[in-house]
Amino acid sequence: MSLTRASRLKRLRSSPAWPLLLFICVMGLLAVQRSGYLRPVENLLLQGLEPGVRGLHGLGTALRDLSETARDLATLRARNDELQAQVNQLLIDKVRADEVEQEYEQTRRLLGFAEANPNLTVRGSQIVGRVLAESPNNYVDSIQVDLGQQHGIRPGMAVVTERGLVGRVTEVFATTSQVMLLTDPNSSVSAFIQSSRLQGVIKGQVGSPLLLMDRIPQDFQVSPGDIVLTSGLGGNLPRNLVIGQVVSVRSRDYEMFQQAVVRPTVDFRRLEMVLVITGFQERTTASPTPVP
């Protein structure tokens, strides 16, 4: 029975009347649809499909929003990277500007010292190294500057900043020199107290930032606050270079001399630029007090 029906349908499809029959069916459905008889069926189908359509619409909206969010995040990330690069460059530029400003300020102060002391012939120099070492037999506190034999530097020359005496050149090489600081215990400088004119010798102390003025006669009074200057005895150093200020006095009745503890005006921890005094002419007027 089913074979007979299948054969009939096959013969119908191969019949020349099949397109006409299909056309008549379609037109009939259109006529029925226009008449409104299929509206309940359409509404029923639309109601069934509405949740799915809404879901697809919501999914499309979510996917579009997600795509826009990802694009916005990528844009913001690129903008953030660009701004961070600008911030980094500005920070580098600021650091460089600060360094230039500090170097300018140091140079200005050193030039001011040179102008205030026309009797001194000086050469500016950069600190290129520092030696701070302690051993059982020796204690060294020195710096290395970028001036040497090629620049006319010789052992014994004084090294200063605008604040006062730093030390003396001890070793000279082709383009660099070694400078023994006042704080080195091997350092010894003739000095005097400005107010009383008392003579003494300034020495460094092992492991201490303070200096010791020795050989001060007992029968003279030394007071905290007194200014200590170079005496120029021996002709190795100019006279009236500022060394420091007395902070305390050590005195014992049974000793021939008293001692004064002196705080140097130079901050040896922050040395960057110095002046090497390559020549000088003595003068009797005292140097101005160190720049604070």
Q: How would you sum up this structure, described in words?
A:
Helices cover about 35% and strands about 30% of the residues. It is α+β, with helices and mostly antiparallel strands. The chain has 2 domains: about 40-115; about 120-280, Rod shape-determining protein MreC, domain 1 (Thrombin, subunit H), CATH 2.40.10.340. A 6-stranded antiparallel beta barrel has the order 1-2-5-4-3-12. A 6-stranded antiparallel β-barrel has the order 6-7-8-11-10-9. Mean pLDDT is about 80; it is low at about 285-290.
Short descriptors:
alpha+beta, Thrombin, subunit H, 2 domains, 3 helices, 12 strands, disordered C terminus
Which CATH architecture of the largest domain would you pick?
A: Beta Barrel
The low-confidence runs, each spanning 5 or more residues with pLDDT under 50, are 285-292
Distance between the termini: 123 Å
Oligomer: single chain
Q: Layout of helices and strands, plus pairs?
A:
Blueprint: H1 2-13, H2 18-35, H3 39-116, E1 120-134, E2 139-145, E3 158-161, E4 164-172, E5 177-181, E6 188-193, E7 199-203, E8 211-217, E9 227-230, E10 242-250, E11 257-264, E12 273-280
